[in-house]
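thread from #wetlab-drylab

HS: before we spend reagent money on co-crystallization trials with beta-D-mannopyranose, can we at least see a predicted complex? here's what I'd submit
DV: go for it
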Amino acid sequence: MSHVKIIGPNVPNMPWQDRPADSRQELPVWRYSENPIIGRNPAKGVARIFNSAVIPYDGAFIGVFRGEQTNGIPYIYLGRSKDAIHWEFDEEKIPFKDENGRDFMPRYAYDPRLVKVEDTYYIMWCQDFYGASIGLAKTQDFKTFTRIENPFIPFNRNAVLFPRKINGKYRMLSRPSDSGHTPFGDIFVSESPDMVYWGRHRHLMSNSGNWWENVKIGGGAAPIETSEGWLLFYHGVTGTCNGYVYSIGGAILDIDEPSVVKYRCSTFLLTPEAWYEERGFVPNVAFPCATIHDAGSGRIAIYYGCADTYVGLAFTTADEVVSYIKEHSVVTETDTEVGIR
Ligand code: BMA
């Protein structure tokens, strides 16, 4: 019996696996036993797929996938699946058009997110705009993809749209950064009346004193609306003598004023421990980009990039993860204030 309600559609055909009986894990999130769900060389001309986003569509599932081409340049590919575990990818890159109907192909495109607001699906990713910045496009049928103007100036990464308007406005998380492997970074939330003009920027949360997220943080999956507030899975990064380590964190944001953090988990929810998270092109990366969740059962499947090489799947329930976040919550002034100075 679920106490924390997910507000949204029922998706009874979502992927699911019960927590293994022999799990010694105290954390509320557990890995799919058949991970990684997408292995190396998954499509023609694509060496690796990771950091990708999926969504229920037309009784099945569709997704936007970061495909690292064999020339080393990342781009976004469309994939389809009946069970959200086994995926087939289009051979061609997503054919964006601009608003005048002209072909548009970013020089590179990575870490896409896919979010439905009302009857439109929005894709947001990182691309070159005289420096790394956010690219944005919309589609209603996954056949025509209209690129909308870049929402923010460089440098910025990790854009994540909320799945509904809040007080009549679109809201988007992003992480202002630098031109390289940014050694800092907080999450901000911006609003727009029309997906074109963005403003009323608010600070959401900073990197924290928690060791696992003490270098930078960035938005992950689109926030999930629940009876406790917006449930956000994000990534938190720490630095070691061998490079960055990316873990998955969790927070609950105020439903009407999402720049206010109600609860923020002081421990990670998942950190690189499995071979496919520890070993790959960039070791020790767990990078969440999407969830599929079912309001009826409260089940949540988290899609995350593993070691910049694979896609992994992990599970939790709204009840378990929200209670855990609340029990382990530590919030500071920069979390709980509205975030304008
Ligand atoms: C970040 C992004 C992610 C990547 C991560 C680890 O800066 O580029 O795409 O997963 O680094 O390499």
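DV: The mean pLDDT is 97.
HS: ok that's useful, forwarding to the group
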